[in-house]
Write a structure and sequence with these properties.
CATH architecture of chain A: Alpha-Beta Barrel
Number of helices of chain A: 5
CATH topology of chain A: fumarase
Mean pLDDT of chain B: 97
Radius of gyration of chain B: 19 Å
Number of strands of chain B: 10
Order of helices and strands of chain A: EHEHEHEHEHEE
Distance between the termini of chain A: 18 Å
Low-confidence stretches of chain B: none
Strand content of chain A: 25-35%
Oligomer: heterodimer
Largest sheet of chain A: 5 strands, mixed, barrel
Largest sheet of chain B: 4 strands, mixed
Radius of gyration of chain A: 15 Å
Strand content of chain B: 15-25%
Largest interface: A-B, 39 and 42 residues
Distance between the termini of chain B: 14 Å
Number of strands of chain A: 7
Strand order of the largest sheet of chain A: 2-3-4-5-7
Shape of chain B: globular
Order of helices and strands of chain B: EHHHEEHEEHEHEHHEEE
CATH superfamily of chain A: Fe-S hydro-lyase, tartrate dehydratase beta-type, catalytic domain
Low-confidence stretches of chain A: none
Shape of chain A: globular
Number of helices of chain B: 8
Number of domains of chain B: 2
Structural class of chain A: alpha/beta
């Protein structure tokens, strides 16, 4: 089913999504990948607050190429989500609304998605130029020193994704 | 003897880095066209269409094809009658990579140490493979490698008794394990023979061979054709979301090896299989 949804997603939206749904997201999301996740978890381990409030938000596993003058962002496709599996259940249990990446996840992540009524979307890997056209604004909001791995707040318009793990724990890759 | 100014090497590599990250080579474009015609899954067709649209946008608007503009892998064949002047070769190569990645708005994806992990902020150093060949020319092959697919690559220390069936089973196993992670449709580079490190380097070199050109060794050519068919029967499909097109090519390189072994490596590359060659 094709759906047009506002990001961040409501809990009702998450509950209604099913694997294979083709979704166009409009609104805001955050980027974070390996180094930002490591730092966020270290921050939590020290008992400190995260630099952004992730409750209900979507995290896009992505590190862009630099923007040319006059553009919001460079190439901006998904990175392999599995590298964030070690960290994702903790963030989901803290209220993270959902994730966008590509590739397989562990059972622990799938369980955390079900437990928290969340969702895992895939964007098309290797289509970074095309996907960048759906991003209208980008602002570094934390960890600037990490360069491409900094946390960015993105504004997106009809950003195309596919539901791979839904809130019932079904997995699109497993059906193939 | 011929003198080659290292400034020319730097300038050439700078230009190659920018070109290869924005414009996929004609062999890869043709392979994607053929894949689009072959694919039957509706979602698969849609994804392949997006990949083609992506290539047009990348070229016309100078946005890298993929945000992972890779770690720069360079194969440099140096004629033995060449004398480099005006610096040292390794510095000249890395300066070319630095300028290419900084001037070309390419992503800096290299960290200075595998454990401490500080970004070098200019994508250096490159991984450089040197070889000395007859003559007085310098041939540079640049293949920036993204790590979504690099992480799914493998080395197998097979035994002679495993034979060609062992090679086939290992290729299929690596591709299955990679699944959606390696951004299919993929190109599969295979190196068989040599030693532990030799087969890995050959598997990387195999990815730089033009897609559609087969090995000149008859049994290796047959292996390439059979493996492509078998991989495409796995049903992984574009984006790993199901379909007939999982791989665009299987390129196999071989080398003599030891009586006791049959090392082999499978280096997987995504559909953004970037390779570019220049002669200086």
């Amino acid at each position: 089913m094709t759906k047009y949804l506002t990001a961040p997603l409501s809990k009702e939206d998450c509950a209604d999504l099913r694997i294979g749904d083709y979704v166009y997201l409009t609104g805001t999301m955050y980027t974070a990948r390996d180094a930002a996740h490591k730092r966020m978890i270290e921050t939590l381990d020290r008992g400190e607050e995260l630099p952004v409030d992730i409750k209900g938000q979507l995290i896009y596993y992505m590190g862009p190429s630099p923007a040319r003058e006059g553009r919001p962002i460079g190439s901006a496709g998904p990175t392999t989500a599995g590298r964030m599996d070690k960290y994702a259940p903790t963030l989901l249990d803290l209220g993270l609304g959902g994730m966008i990446g590509k590739g397989k996840r562990t059972q622990a992540v799938s369980d955390a998605i079900v437990r928290n009524n969340s969702v895992y979307f895939a964007a098309v890997g290797g289509a970074g130029a095309l996907l960048s056209k759906s991003i209208t604004a980008s602002e570094v909001v934390a960890y600037d020193d990490l360069g491409t791995e900094a946390i960015r707040k993105l504004t997106v318009e009809n950003f195309p994704v596919i539901v791979v793990i839904d809130s019932k724990g079904d997995n699109l890759y497993a059906t193939i | 003897m011929r003198e080659v100014d290292l400034q020319v090497i730097t300038d050439t590599i700078r230009e190659m880095c920018i070109e290869v990250n924005h414009n996929l080579s004609p062999d890869m474009k043709k392979a994607l066209d053929d894949a689009t015609n072959k694919e039957e899954s509706e979602l698969g067709k849609k994804i392949l269409g997006q990949l083609q649209e992506n290539l047009v946008i990348a070229k016309e608007e100078m946005i890298p094809i993929c945000q992972d503009t890779g770690m720069a892998v360079i194969f440099i064949e140096i004629g033995q009658d060449v004398h480099f002047v005006n610096g040292n070769l390794e510095d000249a190569i890395n300066e070319g990579v630095r300028r290419g990645y900084v001037d070309g708005y390419l992503r800096k994806s290299v960290v200075d140490d595998p454990v401490i992990r500080n970004n070098t902020k200019d994508n250096t150093p490159a991984v450089i493979h040197y070889s000395i060949v007859p003559g007085e020319n310098v041939k540079i092959t640049l293949a920036p490698k993204g790590f979504g697919s690099e992480n799914m690559s493998k080395v197998y220390m097979l035994k002679p008794a495993d034979g060609i069936e062992g090679i086939k089973a290992s290729i299929i196993s690596a591709v299955k394990d990679a699944g959606p992670n390696a951004c299919p449709p993929i190109v599969v580079g295979v190196g068989v023979g040599g030693t532990f490190e030799k087969c890995a380097i050959m598997s990387k070199k195999a990815l730089t061979r033009e897609v559609g050109v087969h090995s000149e060794i008859p049994y290796v050519k047959d292996l390439e054709i059979e493996m492509l068919e078998k991989i495409n029967e796995l049903g992984i499909g574009p984006g790993g979301l199901g379909g007939k097109v999982t791989a665009l090519a299987v390129n196999v390189e071989t080398y003599p090896t030891h009586i006791a072994g049959m090392p082999m490596a499978v280096n997987i590359c995504c559909h953004v299989n970037r390779h570019i060659v220049r002669e200086v």
